[in-house]
């Protein structure tokens, strides 16, 4: 719109660029005059704009750039420490990409999520949800989990998960976690059995020879 364009040029000169003295802006302010294009062309030469009046988009961009430079020059102390919105958004994006950085372990939603995951994978729960995490995330636990073990390949499709998360990849991960948990339970049971045998050996009657199946000398 021609009228809006002319008003825009006048506003830039009056408010930001201020190349002319106030009394010298009359011709540029007279936006309804037939001579306004000539006044505008003279104004462009006076501010050293490299574009022609027909190149309006380029002219607008250039004048806006000039206005920004002048605005910054007048308020350098105010703007020198400012952070562009784009940079802020980039920082936020980076933080969102790594949600564990700002994880609040005291958040009720986080606690509920840990308990729900324990129920989902049928892992023994503890009154303190942080204890469950420590048991799984200590350096010893991580080192143990990282140790390579030889064994027979397992066909996951033969093991029924018992629930459906709605995602095939998550279902497979849940099956793996459950099998690992079962392995740990079996290992624990073996250690319990060994402890029982050891205790029985200590408290047993020395006259009893369980290998012969009889009591006495």
TrEMBL record:
Supply the InterPro entries for this chain: RTRAF
What family does this belong to?
Belongs to the RTRAF family.
This chain's protein is named RNA transcription, translation and transport factor protein
- Say which species the protein is native to: Scytalopus superciliaris
Cite the source lineage. Eukaryota, Metazoa, Chordata, Craniata, Vertebrata
């Amino acid at each position: 719109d021609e009228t809006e364009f002319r008003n825009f040029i006048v506003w830039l000169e009056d408010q930001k660029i201020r190349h002319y003295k106030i009394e010298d802006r009359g011709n540029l302010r007279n936006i309804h005059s037939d001579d306004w294009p000539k006044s505008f062309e003279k104004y462009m030469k006076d501010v050293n704009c490299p574009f022609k009046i027909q190149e309006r988009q380029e002219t607008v961009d250039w004048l806006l750039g000039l206005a920004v430079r002048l605005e910054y020059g007048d308020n350098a102390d105010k703007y020198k420490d400012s952070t562009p919105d784009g940079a802020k958004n980039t920082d936020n994006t980076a933080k969102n990409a790594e949600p564990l950085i700002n994880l609040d372990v005291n958040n009720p939603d986080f606690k509920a999520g840990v308990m729900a995951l324990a129920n989902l994978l049928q892992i023994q729960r503890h009154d303190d949800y942080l204890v469950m995490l420590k048991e799984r995330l200590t350096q010893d636990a991580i080192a143990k989990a990282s140790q390579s073990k030889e064994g027979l390949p397992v066909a996951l499709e033969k093991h029924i998960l018992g629930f459906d998360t709605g995602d095939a990849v998550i279902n497979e991960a849940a099956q793996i976690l459950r099998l690992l948990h079962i392995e740990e339970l079996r290992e624990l049971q073996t250690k319990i059995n060994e402890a029982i045998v050891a205790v029985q050996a200590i408290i047993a009657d020395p006259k009893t020879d369980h290998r012969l199946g009889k009591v006495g000398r």
